[in-house]
Design brief:
The chain is of the alpha/beta class and 501 residues long. It has three domains: 162 residues, 3-Layer(aba) Sandwich (Rossmann fold); 74 residues, Helicase, Ruva Protein, domain 3 (Orthogonal Bundle); 195 residues, 2-Layer Sandwich (Alpha-Beta Plaits), CATH 3.30.70. It is built from 20 helices and twelve strands. The strands form three sheets. It has a five-stranded parallel β-sheet with strand order 2-3-4-1-5, with helices on both faces. The chain has a five-stranded antiparallel β-sheet with strand order 8-10-11-9-12. A two-stranded antiparallel sheet has the order 6-7. The longest helix has 18 residues.
């Protein structure tokens, strides 16, 4: 990328370099949501994970961001940026990265070294993740070797997590009959979609600010629109066209990139007039589970209220149909069809009613346009209706959690210790009770229902912290039983935005 215009536009570095730089990671276009979901699946799910996107969509940037994220977690990583290996070579490459020395011997001998090492890492509470970029370039036999490696396991857990980043050709490759076993091992699939025109404008502003530009609009609206159309929403192409547009504006001595400068950049890249935008006109889903047509939807913060006698969560309804609670989606009034939300376990649970919702939570809910229903009329102690409507401890926890998330207003952190595929209400109850004992009274236990890779999960957390540093210190002090589950730090801001079943 050109450096000629740095001083002219007051940049401290190149704003549109095409080499992936994690300092310039843009979380729009659901990139940040996918990154969060990848971290969760690594720590709590099994099977192979795929991230698919067209050329220049940001797959390598996302893989590098994931590696950075995993550095602060109990994870050892192997990164294969160009996996054009045969089956023996990829096995040797993984063994060398983990042992620090070149593997020698036959495939059986290398596995004889690798498997005990993986078992040792697992006993220490560490996960081992192989991140493969450009996975679509792998030979079929190498993909089969990846499947065999994913079979390494203890009696309860997989020893190796495989994550593949590739172009759509990877999906086509896995459709081959002789690779159906590899295809069946894919537990989560994530799609990187093009940026919309609005997101391209946000992307340009984000990169400019990262490069030190903090004043005025540098790209005119007309130039932004043309760059969005000509790039098709692909971040690498946006970078190339934006750089050439800046160079054209610099050559003219202009302080703002105008439409003619963007046209000049497009012409240099061989993109003629009349180009139409290839990407979606409105944000669409970036995440689809394998074999499932449901999509991640942006959902506003919701507050669960422990209102006796109103329809409860989908899994609680199965466990005890007569014990129900209500949920209130953001910017909507109370509805029995509302989606269920998060759970908090306190050491000494007590019934929660709308009247018991804290003042900060009520204020936050009111500011968000969330309707809080009035408290139900009091029932006589011996009333059969009152007895049937008494919420379970988990139902009480649900109400408290969303009130807590609302009152937090996006501030603070917690530690996630479990993601359990739902619905498993009995197992969830057992985990909540066990984690409460193991965490101690000083760390409240939290839980909620969320979609990870489009698949419903029960998520469980411990603690409530003001800063990430406090959360890290608490995570380092967790008992070994909780550390072994691969805990990770989560922000309340992210929990509020995560999709729900």
């Amino acid at each position: 990328m050109s450096v000629l215009y740095r001083d002219h536009f007051e940049f401290t570095t190149d704003p549109f370099g095409i080499t992936p730089n994690t300092d310039f990671f843009f979380g729009g276009g659901q990139r940040a949501d996918i990154l969060e979901a990848l971290a969760v699946t690594i720590m709590h799910d099994e099977g192979i994970v795929m991230v698919v996107g067209e050329i220049g969509m940001g797959k390598t940037m996302l893989s590098r961001m994931l590696l950075e994220r995993l550095k602060s977690m109990q994870v050892d990583t192997v990164y294969l940026p160009n996996p054009v290996f045969d089956r023996d070579e990829i096995l040797n490459a993984i063994a060398k990265d983990l042992t620090g020395t070149a593997a020698v011997g036959s495939r059986a001998e290398v596995l004889g070294v690798l498997e005990p090492l993986l078992i040792q890492r697992h006993s220490e509470g560490r996960r081992v993740v192989v991140v493969i970029d450009e996975a679509h370039s792998m030979p079929a036999l190498t993909l089969e070797e990846i499947r065999l490696l994913s079979n390494l396991e203890t009696s309860h857990h997989k020893l190796l997590k495989i994550m593949m980043f590739g172009q759509p050709e990877l999906e086509q490759l896995l459709q081959a009959p002789h690779l159906r076993q590899v295809r069946d091992r894919v537990s989560h699939r994530f799609n990187l979609r093009p940026l919309t025109p609005v997101e391209v404008a946000e992307y340009l502003d984000f990169r400019l600010q990262r490069a030190g530009r903090n004043r005025g609009q540098l790209f005119s609206p007309e130039a932004q629109q043309l760059l969005a159309q000509a790039s098709g929403g692909r971040t690498r192409r946006v970078n190339m066209l934006a750089d050439k547009s800046l160079l054209a504006a610099y050559a003219d001595g202009a302080d703002v990139v105008q439409l003619q400068h963007a046209r000049s950049a497009c012409a240099e890249e061989g993109i003629g007039p009349g180009v139409t935008f290839e990407g979606p006109s409105v944000p669409s889903s970036a995440v689809q589970p394998v074999g499932d047509t449901r999509r991640w939807r942006p959902i506003g913060m919701a507050v669960a209220l422990g209102l006796m006698g109103v329809a409860g969560g989908w899994w609680l309804g199965r466990q005890a149909p007569q014990q129900m609670h209500a949920t209130v989606p953001a910017a909507a009034t109370l509805s029995a069809a509302s989606q269920p939300v998060a759970v908090v376990v306190a050491p000494t649970p007590a019934a929660v009613t709308p009247a018991a919702v804290s003042a900060p939570a009520a204020a936050t809910a009111a500011a968000s346009g969330i309707a809080i229903p009035p408290a139900p009329p009091a029932m006589p102690a011996d009333s059969p209706i009152a007895i049937a409507s008494t919420p379970t401890p988990v139902a009480q926890i649900i109400a408290r959690t969303e009130a807590l998330i609302a009152s937090r207003a996006g501030k603070g952190f917690t530690i996630q210790v479990l993601a359990l595929k739902a619905p498993q209400p009995a197992q969830l109850e057992d985990y909540l009770a066990r984690f409460e004992r193991e965490a101690g009274a000083a760390l409240p236990v939290l839980a909620n229902d969320r979609l990870y890779g489009g698949i419903p999960h029960h998520a469980v957390y411990v603690g409530e912290f003001e800063t990430r540093e406090q959360a890290q210190s608490a995570m380092d002090s967790l008992p070994a039983s909780l550390k072994a589950r691969g805990p990770l730090i989560r922000s309340f801001a992210r929990l509020a935005k995560e999709p729900r079943p």
